[in-house]
Structures are given as structure tokens and as C-alpha cells.
## 1
Amino acid sequence: MRLHRSIGAVITAVGVAALVVGCSSAGAGSTSNAKSSNRTVVTGAKACTQYGKNITMKVGFSESGATIEDGFKSIVSSFEKANPTVKIDVQAKDFSSSLQTIKLAMSSNNPPDLMQGNEGWSIDGALWQANLLLNLDPYAKAYGWDSKFPQSALTVNEFSKDGKTFGSGSLTGLPQGIQYVGVFYNKANLAKIGITDPSTLDNKDAFLAALDKSKQAGITPVMLGDSEKNYALHNISLFNGWYVTPDKINDWVFNKPGSTYDDAGHIKGATDMQDWMKKGYFNSDALATSFNDATARFGKGESTFFITGTWALGDVEKALGSNAGFMLFPAGDTGIHEAVGGYSLPYTISSKTKYPDCAASFLNYITTSDAAVQAQIAAGRPSATVAGLDAPVKDPLLQQMVTQYKKLNADNGLFTWEDWPTPTMLTYSGSQAQLLIGGKLTPKQYAASLQKNWSDYMKTKK
């Protein structure tokens, strides 16, 4: 799957080349040496037993979807069986709740030993700048992560030691799985509107016609849940992909000077998002509906389509069974299939942990072990590792997702999350998107406001 390598190439092209990681040695438990690459690493059984017979590590979990959470807890149990001196305390929150508390939790005197954060400046970048994350470079060398993961999976989790550059420098986290945003559909509802071959929807005009047919049949065309003020951004990004190339989007995300969001393509994308709400393509209560409720309602047959990330695959399949299908968002004016995504939320290690080697051993296990690869497949997504890309998949819906993923790769159509480029972009753009969808901002005002946030941040980097 070429995608993983192509992201890295794009990042390098915009001037944030990956840094080769090296070995190291310093103690943890203090933020003063968090970014040090001087650390003596202990691996194997002693990675955990060196700390005593009974230790407990707290792990913050914040991914969407009950299936993914169940899968994570299963692999935690597997690690505990292999390491009987260790107990893992999983502290699970939904993503939006975690966003509100993660910085406070990680800066406390007793933070989680590992935390699932988010790539980019808003979460992991801010924690790195505050010396709250452990430099993982020595562990990358000790465990061979540079060969176990595609370079792009590492690059999007790297920051420079001075905290000014994203996309190069020291490794701060690792993802478990691959994920991107596409279109789930309900085959039974498609049949009700006369569509028995979903492949015919891989065309912008045909897809829009299906939305109209669904509405005319009294079925909500697209389910959306954005009460958390971030999931609508994924839909907007797909609209942007109709008019803006992946390279231009990535340039802006990775702070390339001269990049802009305030252009004709992004304004068209914002216009489509607003128009879909006006036309009744989305459920009328989208802004007050949570992501979990939207997933459940789609699973109950309330809409024909659900445009969201592949993290919902397990829950959708549980609800709809063989009636569930998945496709890419149809190609737009750029002529290629485009999608926003890449990797799942990364796990980082607190600079204050008393058990750095054991935490790194756990991180290695939940991401690279054979059990981890199978756990990701069971959760409805491929593992982010090199080995995981070619692991056998039997589940029909996951096979469909992987096939569509290969099509996306063939088009070189993947671009990164547009909430990454500034420390405040995630929360700011999420709030602005609600104003856009609610008709309180024009598409031009929306695009200009995001560009101002970006430009103001760029001034601080000089």
C-alpha cells in the first residue's frame, strides 16, 4: 500500500524532512529531561520487572467506537498475562471529553503513564512544548520502530526539540491502526430508492442524485453528529477534496509559507457543506447530535449514508451486518478520489512516568506484536505497521475498506487532517464549522477565519 510512503514524500516536499532517530539515556519522572535522547533502555522481561513485583500503569484511551475500545482492552489483557507484575488501568473517555481534559491531566503530578493524544499542534505539539511527553527516539532504535512502521507513521508524530517544527525531529508517539474518512451506506435503504449496484455511486452526479432520491423517499440522506464540534470538519475536508489537490492541502497543514485556506476551492467546499444542510441532506439536528448517537441512528436505518471515519466500521457492521457497505467519497473537480486521514490517534508516554521502559514495552506490544495486528483487524481496521498492511483479512466490510484504500492510494488522494496546523485550529475550526453549517457565517467568512488563525500562528514561528 503506497499511501504510507507517499505521505512521507509529501511532507518532505514541503520542507519538513524526517530525522533519523538515534540511541540515548536519561531518567524519566521529571519534565526537565523529557526531550533528552540520552537514555539507557531496558527491553524484554526486565523492562517491567525492574520496577518491582506489582506496578500499575494508567493509560488514557480516547478513540471513537465501542468495537475499537473493546479490542484495546482485549490486547491490554493479553499484555498483562505476558507481564504478571503489571496491571494496566485503562481510563477511557470519548475523544471530545479527552480534548477538554488531556492537557490538565498530563500536567498534573500524577498523570497517565501513557496517553492517547492527537497529532499536530493542538494536543501532542502543545504537550511536547511543555516538556510533558517523553522523547521516544531511544526506544525507536531499541525496538526497531523505524523498520516496523512506514516512515510517514513516524513523521506525523515528530517534533523538533525546540518545539517549533512539526513533521521532523524527535518521535513522540505511535499509532495502532490506519483510518481515513469515507462513505458508509445502507444497502437496504439504497434498494428502497432503486439502487441495487452501489458501484454506480462512484460518480459525483450519481451520488448527488442518490441524496435527492433518499430525501424524496423520506429517508435522511446523510447522518451527521457534530455536538462535539469536530466531526463535521471531516465532511468539510471531503468537500475540499473535490476542489483542492492533496498537495495544496498538505502544504497548508504543514505550515508551508504562502499556503492558504482562503481560496476558491476551500470556499466552494464550505459552500457545499452549508448547502447540504440547507437542502436537507443532513439530519436537521446534526449540530446537537453526538457522534455515538449518529452512529447508532445510522445503524438503525435512519439514513442511507454516513460520511465518517473508518473507525466506525466495527460498530456499523455490528448494527447492519451484511446490509453495510463502504465506498470512497466520489471524485470531484480534481479528477481523483481524495480523502482525509492516515493513522489512528497516537499513544504517547508521559515524561513523568516512573516506569518509562515498561511503558515503552507496552507501547511496542499494543502496536507491533502479532496480537496487536490481529486486534486491529478484529476492530475493523488494518494495523499501522508494515506487517499489518498485508495481513490476511476475511471480514467482507473490512475487505471492502481495504480495496477502497488501495484505490485511494492509486490516486495519491490522501491528505492530512486540516485541524493540525496550529495549536488552536481543532477547537477553533470546529466552532466555526458549526456557525457555517448553521448559516451564521458565509463560506468566505469561514475560509478567511481559518486562514487568519493560521497566519497569526505563523507569525509566532518567526
## 2
Amino acid sequence: MAARSNAARAGATSVPATAHRPTKAPATPASLDRLIHDRTRLAIVSALAAQSSMTFNDLKSATETSDGNLSVHARKLEDAGYVSCTKSFEGRMPRTEFGLTDAGRKALRKYLDHMEAIIKGARGK
């Protein structure tokens, strides 16, 4: 004989799965995309969202960061698939160019929507 659950022994009735619809969890700062939320990475993604592509030096200037910081943060975004990086040569000079991927654009849009929900909640709207 199959074992009965405590709820079945107590005479509880089951609720159809369609009767319970989970509500959307409120936007909280703790649930933000931490990859984009970092100041430098948010600056990189925002700058790339406004341009089709940017060179390393242009991006460094736009984000007001050092070579090392830009390299580290751009690599994290690249590893996540948010940013593409193309390396080439212009004459004998190396040229690194960055672009925002479709996944990066989608993640930024989701991040901005999330921030707007938090702001609306804080303002009581």
C-alpha cells in the first residue's frame, strides 16, 4: 500500500496547479545583475550601447578608467558573452575593438528595467 502524505491523512484537498499562479517577485537591489551593476562594467556596457563599436582607447577615455581596469572588466563581460572583442593591426599598431553583443544589449535592457522598478518602488509609485 502506498504511503499517504500528512496533508492527505488530515483530509486536505489538493489544489490544481493552474489555480496557483506565482506572483512576480518585487525588484530588489539584491537581485540585480551583479556583472553589470559594477560601476566600471556598467560604464563599458552603457558606452557600447550608444556606439556600434569602440576602440580600447576610446572606451578607456569614455569610462575614465586605467588600461588594467578596462582590460579586467572587459574580459569579464566578454566571458559572459555581453561584449565582443576583436583584435587586429592597423599598420604595425595593434587595434582592439569592442562591441556590445545581442546578449549584452538584452542584459542591459533587463538591468535598466530592474533599476526602474526599484526606483518606482522607492518612490511609492
## 3
Amino acid sequence: MHSTTTFNAATFTSALSAITAAARRHLVGLGAWYQARRDYRLLCRMEECALRDLGLNSSDLRDATAVGIFGDPTSLIASRAAERSGRRNR
């Protein structure tokens, strides 16, 4: 018996589209991760008085390292600033 494989252009195009979409999602995610890390490094270079103006302190920056290498430290930092801002506005 001899089996032959036929080329199905529609299936190939569909698979290629799925691969392209997945690659695009990963690249967008990688870009967001890089931006969050860059923002975190910028905050780490700020003096304590500048951090206070933002509703933060240096311990918030240390705590943000708990998110791990692929986490977003800025989300934790933003929530801390929002918590303090809410307390000030009451």
C-alpha cells in the first residue's frame, strides 16, 4: 500500500495564521514585561522624597521583587500607591 499526503492550502493558511497570532501575543506580552521592568528600574533610582510624592516608599519597591522575574512589579507598586491615596482622600 502506498499512502500519499495531499497539500491542503486552507489548513496550512489556518495553521500559519494561528502561529502568527500566538507569536504576536507573545511579543506584545514581552514588550509589556520589558516596559514594566524599565519603569521599576526608574522608580528604584528615585530618592525617598520623590517616592513619597508618588505615595510610595522604598519598602514598596523591595516588596515588588516578590512577583518574580516574569511578574509585573509595577502592578503591586500601583496598588500600594492607590491604597495610600485612598486613605489620604478620606
## 4
Amino acid sequence: MRLAAFDPERGERMSLLAPILVGVVAVLHAWFLVLEMFLWSTPYGRRAFGQTAEQAEATRVLAANQGLYNGFLAAGLLWGLVQGAPGRGVVVFFLGCVIVAGLYGGISASRKVLLVQALPGVVALVAWLAAG
């Protein structure tokens, strides 16, 4: 399995930072999956989202669905990374999805989402595009 850090067809090294940042965004979204699908109603999950036990229980199914989508974002980013050079467009697409979801969440749910989802996505996308 080759990561996008090395493009064997062009024989040149790309910035190692870019795939690391994409990996961090993927890990964050895998964590969001766990938090929203499995920990939502626990004391930790309620504290993370500032909810009462009643609020968490009432929104548990919606949160699990949202967590599943975050898992798809993580899977897409990892899929793009393991493809190497042919996966560059896949990574750009999924980082774009991360950024749009983060912007929407920041506007509709909490500004905190801008920092924990959109900002890492933007940083990773800039690095990814700069690595060429």
C-alpha cells in the first residue's frame, strides 16, 4: 500500500505534511463517528455537546446518523490516501465535503464546529494542493 506522499509515476517526493494532515482529519472524523454513534448518551458525550440526558436521548438516532456520515468522510479520505497519486482528486473531494459540512455545522449548530471540523479541513486542503 502506497500513500500519496510518494508518486512513483513522477518519481518525486511530495510534502510529507499534506498526507499527515489529511490523516489527522480522517482520524478526527473517525472519532466523531465514535462520539456520535456510541458515546452520545454517555456522560462524556453529553458533556462534549452540552446536553442533558433527556436531550441526548431525544436526539440519539439523529446523532448516530450524523456519526455514520462522519465515518464516510473518514473512509473517503483514507481511500484517497491509499490510492497514491490517482487518489488526489478523491482527497480533494472529501476535504471539500468536510469543509462544507463544517461550515454548515458552524452556522447551524455551533461555532465550535468551525474550529474542530472546517478549519482542519481547510488547512489539510491547502497543504494537499500546495504539495501538488
